[in-house]
């Protein structure tokens, strides 16, 4: 089912974002730049988690082609 695939992609991005936040917390240099990156990633993670909840509970099918393009670019 496509929904499972889309949900898995979003979940994988959430895990990647959490890894980025962990790496930022462990960094010893570029504190200001890393802090800004962490803020942006954390905000993006909130949005991804909300989207994941929405698509897994949606009773209608969703058009997620643009999401698939975004996921591919973010993973790169």
Automatic annotation (TrEMBL):
Pfam families: DUF7792. It comes from the Eukaryota. This is DUF7792 domain-containing protein. Residues 10-74 form the DUF7792 domain. InterPro entries: DUF7792 (IPR056694).
């Amino acid at each position: 089912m496509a929904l499972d695939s889309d949900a898995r992609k979003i979940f994988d991005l959430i895990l990647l974002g959490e890894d980025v936040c962990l790496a930022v917390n462990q960094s010893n240099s570029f504190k200001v730049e890393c802090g800004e990156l962490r803020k942006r990633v954390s905000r993006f993670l909130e949005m991804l988690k909300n989207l994941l909840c929405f698509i897994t509970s949606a009773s209608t099918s969703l058009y997620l082609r643009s999401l698939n393009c975004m996921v591919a670019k973010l993973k790169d």
